[in-house]
Amino acid sequence: MTSALLQRKAQAARTASGAPAPTLALYEQVKEFITRKIQDGSWPAGHRLPSEHELVAQFGISRMTANRALRELMELGRIVRQAGVGSFVAEDKPQSTLLQIANIESDIRARGHDYSYQLLTAERIAASSDVAAWLDLRAGESVFHSVCLHLEDGTPVQLEDRYVNPRVVPAFLDQDLTVTPPSAYLVRHVPFDQIEHLVDAVLPTAEQAQRLAMPGAEPCLLLTRRTWTRNVPVTLVRCLHPATRYRLGSRFQTDGNPISS
Questions:
Q1: Is the torsion defined by CA of 244, 198, 147, 229 positive or negative?
Q2: pTM of this structure
Q3: Backbone CA torsion sign across 108, 196, 225, 195
Q4: Thinking of the domain 104-242, which architecture would CATH place it in?
Q5: What's the pLDDT tens digit per position in 138-171?
Q6: Cβ contacts of residue 51 below 8 Å, gap of 6+?
């Protein structure tokens, strides 16, 4: 499959969805191809990916483009790379099912502290290959994106990076999100029947550290949350917390249900 064919396939997908998204960069097209192979089970955990040289020949791209696609997939945790051996589909990380995260505003106010919120970004963008896979969309299809900062007594405690499925919440950007946080609007207006939580320990990027007013060398807890309604993905949100300022946890009864307050 050449790069030209990839571009034609991407254009056809956008035409079918009616989304006015620009053509994906070549490295994103390669990421989408690999991501879809992983998502549909064609390439299970441990499967060896084509080498950079093989990707160059298959897609008609440069070595630099192939390297960037593989590098970004590794950074996302979808593949692992072994020097001199090759790239392989990553094993799924184990996850805990006994985790419930309270609304951060309610959590902060319940401690008697002041809560404030800043909307940093609210826009419609073309979904990257990884976001599209998480929300079961086509890469390049239109998706809503918001970024906001949650503060406790004026100190940043959570950086929220959210993607919303326009098929489910078409009026998302019509709301005044400077007044009502995205999470509050979605909980009130879009009932969900499934929720998934993943928690990882990560280091923030330079931009994330600046927004959280923290040293870049200090670790963070990254909560990734997805919700569904009738088996259709509603939102993907990544919440980054400085580990020195915030903890993730919950208390449960022996039947697995949270303790009522």
A1: negative
A2: 0.65
A3: negative
A4: 3-Layer(aba) Sandwich (3.40)
A5: 999 999 999 999 999 999 999 999 999 999 999 9
A6: 86, 87
